[in-house]
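not sure who needs this but someone in the group chat was asking about EF hand from Candidatus Thiodiazotropha endolucinida so here u go. i didnt clean anything up, its just raw.
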Amino acid sequence: MNKKTILHSAVALAAAGFLTAAVAGEDAFSKLDANADGAISSEEATAHEALYKGWETADANQDGQVDAAEFSAFEASSAPEGK
């Protein structure tokens, strides 16, 4: 393999990992949003221990629900180091 092929392969693998993580996050949000209204209520959050315990942080705008952007930010901030 030449350097160009190796570089393209590395970029493709990194992109695939990023997309997999993004889809997994969307899937988790969709599963928690039981009534599919586009937000996770505090009641729906009881199905996700970390979200329920970190509700005050996750609900960044303090409107009583966690939208997809807030959920993504919460997951990113609570992800273990190195992931």
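also The two ends are 29 Å apart (CA to CA). if thats useful
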